[in-house]
Amino acid sequence: MKKMFSIVVILSMIFTQFSQSIAMAAGSVGAGEDIAVSLEKEGTTENSTFKVVISEEIDELNVTYPKNSNYSDYFVGNDQATITNNKESHSLNINSLENTKEIRFALKDLTEGENLIKIEGFKEKKINSNEGFYVPITFKR
Question: What are the boundaries of the signal sequence (predicted)?
């Protein structure tokens, strides 16, 4: 019996090393007065898509992502919205969000454990003082 239990434990440890990590944070993971952020479906450390719902008070967003991760070249917004990825500062600048209700972008290469993503909303190039907040995303096997 002890031998069988040991084999099961060893096999489960081996299989968990090869499985993808999933985000423990599902649904709404961050919200401010004019911005709400959620992680779509089950995000993984390899690729996670974020949905950002914004109010009319925001015309630009700045998203700072963890240094070990990258922007995965996935962005959905209105036709006028543009996104600029600054790899050196690990940030996304999303402009021309007038008349936009929501956007989506994806990050890849996140790590297990807590990942902090800073989101700042701007109106007419001035930060909306209520809209600088961190979104903690935790990945666990």
Answer: 1-25
